[in-house]
Design brief:
It contains 4 helices and 8 strands. It has 157 residues and is α+β, with helices and mostly antiparallel strands. α3 packs across α4.
Length: 157
C-alpha cells in the first residue's frame, strides 16, 4: 500500500494505492453496495446506487449523515461527499490484479483530519484483507495513534 499527501491553501489530500488480487467488478461491489461495504465499513450503507444517489454514515444515537454520490461509473469510479470533503475510488486492472486508488480531500475546517486519514488507511488494509483472505483486519492490529502522529508530522498539522 502506498500513501501520499498534498497540501494547498484550501486543504489536504490523501491518495492511497493498493493492489488487490481480484477483478475490478468484484471490488466495485464491495465499495458501492450496502451488502459489500458493510463487510468492511459497517457504519456505511448505500441508497440509490447511481450518480446523484446517496451513501449514509450511521452515527450512534444521532441522525445518519447523508453523503451525495458525485460520480458512479461501474466498475471504474465511485465518488461521494464525505462531510465537507470528498472521497473517490478509482479502479484499474493491472496484470490480473486491480489497482484501487482512494483519493480523499478534506478542507482545513474538517475537525479530525489525521484521524480520518488514518481511518481510511485502516479501511483500505481491511478491505484488501477481506477480499484476499476472507476477513477484515482487526482494529487492534492497526496502530491508529502512531499512524495519526506520522500523518500530522508529514502534513505539519
Amino acid at each position: 500500500m502506498e500513501v501520499n499527501y498534498i497540501k494547498n491553501d484550501k486543504g489536504v489530500y490523501q491518495t492511497i494505492d493498493v493492489l488487490i488480487n481480484e477483478k475490478p467488478s468484484i471490488i466495485f461491489n464491495y465499495l458501492s453496495t450496502t451488502e459489500g461495504i458493510q463487510q468492511w465499513f459497517p457504519q456505511l450503507y448505500v441508497e440509490e446506487r447511481s450518480e446523484h444517489g446517496n451513501l449514509y454514515f450511521h452515527v450512534e444515537d444521532d441522525e445518519d449523515l447523508r453523503m451525495g454520490i458525485l460520480q458512479f461509473d461501474e466498475p471504474n469510479t465511485f465518488e461521494f461527499t464525505w462531510d465537507i470533503g470528498t472521497v473517490k475510488f478509482q479502479l484499474s486492472e493491472q496484470q490480473g490484479q486491480t489497482l484501487l486508488t482512494l483519493k480523499e480531500y478534506l478542507p482545513y475546517e474538517f475537525p479530525h483530519i489525521t484521524l480520518d486519514f488514518s481511518g481510511w488507511q485502516y479501511q483500505m488494509h481491511s478491505l484488501k484483507n477481506l477480499i484476499e483472505q476472507g476477513e477484515i483486519l482487526a482494529q487492534s492490529d492497526f496502530d491508529f495513534e502512531k499512524n495519526q502522529q506520522e500523518i500530522a508530522q508529514k502534513l505539519r498539522l
